[in-house]
Amino acid sequence: MDTEATDLPPVAFSGSRLNWQDLPRHVRSRIAALAGAQVSSETSATSGFTPGFAAVLELGDGHEVFVKAVSAEQNPQAPDLARREIVVAGALPPEVPAPRLLWSHDDGTWVILGFDAVHGQSPEQPWRPADLDRVLVALADLAVARPLTPNGLLPVTDTMADDFRGWRRIACAPDGPRTHSAARFGERGVWVMAHLDQLADWESGWAVAAAGTALVHGDLRADNVMLDTDATWLVDWPLASLGAPWLDLAFMLPSVEMQGGGDADALFWAHPVAAGVEPHALRSVLAALAGHFTLASAQPAPIGVPNLRRFQQAQAVVALDWLRRLPA
């Protein structure tokens, strides 16, 4: 992909969702039993990358439930992510605007989760200022939330330790693959090659910068937000961890700028959670994030998620541009 082209931002959707009738009969029967009523209709989710089944189900008793159902056939990692989301759901305090997990089932092949059905839509693209303001307020509230105890959440320094070594891995790669990877980014790739050792050095400090005890969603983007008339819902929590309270803002802003929401650096420093953040800490985390997106976007597409790599590369472009704008 030519990242210098002025094409539209990639769509955050896997394109491989299952419908109700695609589910095996025993899975449909289990869902109906867990929900306590027969399913009369479905409204499929139209955003997000996780393959499998994701839909609001209307039940014969008039109630609704949002159901996810995944197996390794759709994607080898999907069941473990669903299992992780079950653990995270038990750690979310009531003040966090996340749909409540009602029930779950894991037969070793299919993992099924049933949530309160919440309504609304993902923010329009490009971002409208009023929508972005609502999400930024929700991030300020999330930054002061603390998970319930005891819980099974891990420090972000553990959950992202392998992902946040991108520049160091690229620096150790043979010249051919390294040059080919840089070429995907045009002029930005030239800058990366000239500053690779510095990027790896910045990245190496991310764990110290990111450590903390705040609840971190870890994967916030427009497609993981739902805006109702009077509520802002943060959804899809399998990557949640413990870390610095400003991480979700920093992690989300490359996608916000990519989708027309404004300058990521200006938005970061204007937000309340940025108070007291050292510029070198932001640089380290941003370098790690940019390295992760850069390296991940060069990998083959995961099974059932064909659009993910293009989305990651688009975020890498914005993260690199933000990194280059930071004061020396």
Automatic annotation (TrEMBL):
The keyword Disulfide bond does not apply. Keywords: Transferase. It comes from the Bacteria. Gene3D superfamilies: 3.90.1200.10. Signal peptide: none annotated. Residues 64-268 form the Aminoglycoside phosphotransferase domain. InterPro entries: Aminoglycoside_PTrfase (IPR002575), Kinase-like_dom_sf (IPR011009). One of its GO terms (molecular function) is transferase activity. Transmembrane segments: none annotated. It holds the Pfam family APH. This is Aminoglycoside phosphotransferase family protein.
